[in-house]
Amino acid sequence: MARPAPSAERTVALLDFLAAHPDERFGLSELARRLDMSKATAHAITAALTDAGYLLRHPLDKRYSLGPALVAVGNAAASREFEVVDYARDEMRRLADELQVLCVASATIGDEIVILGRSGDLGPLAPSVQVGHRLPLAPPLGTVFMAWSAPEAIDSWLRRLGPGASDVEVERYRAAIATVRRRGYSLALEADARIRLGEALSRPDEQIAALVDDLGHEEYVLGELEHSSSYRLSLIAAPVFGTDRGIALVLTLFGFRDALPAGAVPGLAERLLEATHRVTKALSGRVADGGGP
After folding, report:
1. Is residue 158 part of a domain?
2. Nearest 10 degrees: CA dihedral of 193, 234, 154, 36?
3. Which of residues 42, 67, 92 is at a domain's end?
């Protein structure tokens, strides 16, 4: 595949940098230094983006910040995601009512998982998720998204385990990704860090990233089921595919109140897969290889 033009890559890098510092303004020299580009290149990019309204240049200190045109772009992207959720709402309601759980729709935007819709009673054991909540796309979160991703995306995701991750942990996640892709859905166990994470979502001052890191080193992702065992499940998640065979949406069931015998889990997962396949069909999507029956 052809690489993007260097000017396009630098433009994206500049916008990404400013998006990571939305409350700050930067001068031309500092942008050039921080982004490792010449001042002439930075000037050409900022001038074009300012003319288009994607950047603002302060009239006094001549520093740059994100501009109003990006609001329209962001709103358009967000509305498209919510449009996808509209195709899933009836299925989400049926799942929530039939199984007495919370059904949540989410998608990835950049390096985050964003909650786009929910249906059902939160219940005492379900996480306090609200539409608009964001979580880091970092192990163990997002296994179902990663299962149909390119190898380089999986490697990038695994690196977010941090330098302290052991080879055993990394291989455990690789095995989990392979299992999710084979059976078409993801399972996760209830864990102390997950409970704290659910509580923290309603309190912005909590260190969510640190809790996700804790969760990444706990026994959370459930691989093969042992038929004689019972499990306290945190979630069952399955993908909705778009026309390009990419994941357009993930539907997740939360709030299982009792431990489930291993034999009961595949039936619940199959019910979820039936729903996600109907939403995929409604979107004229195409199920990727290993995307379930």
Report:
1. yes
2. -40
3. 67
Whether residues 171 and 30 share a domain: the answer is no
252: which residues sit within 8 A by CB, 6+ positions away?
Answer: 103, 104, 105, 106, 235, 236, 237
Domain hosting residue 46, numbered range: 6-67
Q: What is the DSSP string of 74-111?
A: HHHHHHHHHHHHHHHHHHHHHHHHHHTSEEEEEEEETT
Tokens representing residue 227 in the block: 């038929």
133 and 48, same structural domain?
Answer: no
| Selection from 247, 230, 237, 255 nearest residue 287 by Cα | 247
Question: Can you give the pLDDT at residue 172?
Answer: 87
**Of 109, 277, 112, which is closest to residue 185 (Cα–Cα)?**
277
Q: Are 166 and 254 in contact (CB under 8 A)?
A: no
Q: Angle of helix 265-282 relative to helix 69-99, nearest 10 degrees? A: 140
Helix (H) or strand (E) holding 240: strand 233-241
Q: Assess if residue 228 is contained within a domain.
A: yes
* HSE value, Cβ hemisphere, 13 Å, CA-based, for 197: 22
What CATH number does the domain containing 158 carry?
A: 3.30.450.40
Q: Is the pLDDT of residue 23 over 90?
A: no
How confident is the model over 54-68, as pLDDT tens digits?
899 988 889 999 888
Q: How many domains does the chain have?
A: 2
> Please, what sign has the CA dihedral across residues 234, 212, 116, 251?
negative
The secondary structure of residue 22, as a DSSP letter, is T
Entry pTM: 0.66
- When pLDDT is averaged across residues 135-150 and rounded to a whole number, the result is 89
Q: Give, in degrees to the nearest 5, the angle at Cα 223 between 292 and 114.
A: 70
Kindly write down the DSSP assignment for every residue of 169-212, as one continuous string: HHHHHHHHHHHHHHHS-EEEE--HHHHHHHHHTT-TTS-HHHHH
Pick 193 or 249 by higher pLDDT. Answer: 249
pLDDT of residue 203: 46
Token output for 242: 């778009």
